[in-house]
């Protein structure tokens, strides 16, 4: 796939899906959770929210390396030929309160039903700075896009 075709496919996938799997490190062990997410148009940032009392938050504070998996599977046999999955990797951090306005606008555009949740004082607005995407489609076609 050409670079622009990869970016187009990633953009379509990220805009069409509402949930992703966030993978973190828990004292050397992998740990995964479902998160509601949004992505910036330039594909460089993936946004998600979590209460500061969660294990995923503690894991990211201790080790910011993370991965986010987004896919469009339908749990049907056709997925082996049509489904697409993208893994974004990079460091994640909490967005400073002074920088939250554009974060909230983008996130709440996709998830307006989560407004009370993300505006709670106990909620951390997080962003993953994407360094690399690994895109898999047609079951075994693997393509990488490096952003850093």
Q: In a few lines, what is going on in this structure?
A:
This protein is of the alpha+beta class.
Describe the protein.
The chain has 148 residues and is α+β, with helices and mostly antiparallel strands. The protein has a single domain (3-146), classed as Pnp Oxidase, Chain A (Roll). 28% of the residues lie in helices and 43% in strands. The chain has 5 helices and 8 strands, in the order αβββαβαβααβββ. It has helices at residues 3-16, 55-62, 79-82, 100-110, 115-119, and strands at 19-26, 29-39, 45-51, 65-71, 84-94, 123-129, 132-137, 141-146. A 6-stranded antiparallel barrel has the order 1-2-3-6-5-4. The longest helix is centred in the N-terminal third of the chain and has 14 residues, at 3-16. It is globular. The mean pLDDT is 93.
